[in-house]
Structure formats: C-alpha cells, structure tokens
Amino acid sequence: PSVVAFAKNGEVLVGEVAKRQAVTNVDRTIRSVKRHMGTDWKIEIDGKGFNPQQMSAFILQKLKRDAESYLGEKVADAVITVPAYFNDSERQATKEAGEIAGLNVLRIVNEPTAAALAYGLDKDDQTILV
C-alpha cells in the first residue's frame, strides 16, 4: 500500500509496516498522497515540511530497494505509471518524485496503457479492449 509513516524514533516506514502502525500513529501516517500530486499540499513532521513529491519518493525508494533485492543488481532507470486522468503538473510532480528517489525516469506512462502493454507481452496478435 502507498502509506508512509514517521516513527517516533525518526525512522520512515513505508508500505505494510506503515499501514500496521497507522492506528497508533495517526498524526504521523500519510495515505493517498497521489491525490496531492501537482498541488502545493505540505505536511510538517518534527518541524520538517514534506511535499507530495517527497512523500512519493519514499514509496519509490522502497520499490527501488525491493526490486534491487529481487534482481540482485542496482536499478537506475524507471518507467513510472500514473492514472490516465493526471494532468501535466501531476505528471511532472510524479517525475520529480522518481528523481528524488534516485531514479532516472525514462517515461511516464498511463496506467491503462501499461496494463495493456503488460497483458500483450506474451500474446499473439489479437484485438483487446482496455
């Protein structure tokens, strides 16, 4: 899940770990940051301000670490998906999040397009509805 939490000891928690402690750490747990992409939304934790790009970067950094662990090699480049309804500022904010996470963002792709591409990777020529 796209959940980021700041533990009392300063550790940044992402995903399931962040979700599990959300009930006991409500004020320091952020969900659904995607809704704030491309806006001037900010949250302050321990006197430090975080914008949507920084919050999304924590999630992308975890995904990067997980991919590197699974693949056994460094990941530098990424293609990031966004909802089809994202406008230019939301797409730019998403690209910035990837860069903050240490990724070279090759392309931003609509989620339905990515789903169609993934579906068709092992299929013969045919017509599909997306």
What does this structure look like?
By secondary structure, the chain is of the alpha+beta class. It has a domain at 32-120: 2-Layer Sandwich (Nucleotidyltransferase, domain 5), CATH 3.30.420. The chain has helices at residues 16-20, 52-71, 88-100, 111-120; strands at 3-6, 12-14, 29-31, 43-45, 48-50, 77-82, 104-110. The protein has a 3-stranded antiparallel sheet. Strands 4-5 form a two-stranded antiparallel ribbon. It has a two-stranded parallel ribbon with strand order 6-7. Helix 2 (52-71) crosses helix 3. The two termini are 24 Å apart. The model has no long low-confidence stretch (mean pLDDT 93).
Estimated structural class: alpha+beta
The biggest beta sheet, please?
A: 3 strands, antiparallel
- End-to-end CA span: 24 Å
Strand order of the largest sheet: 2-1-3
What order do the helices and strands follow? Answer: EEHEEEHEHEH
Estimate the mean pLDDT confidence: 93
Globally, the shape reads globular
Annotation, overall tally of beta strands: 7
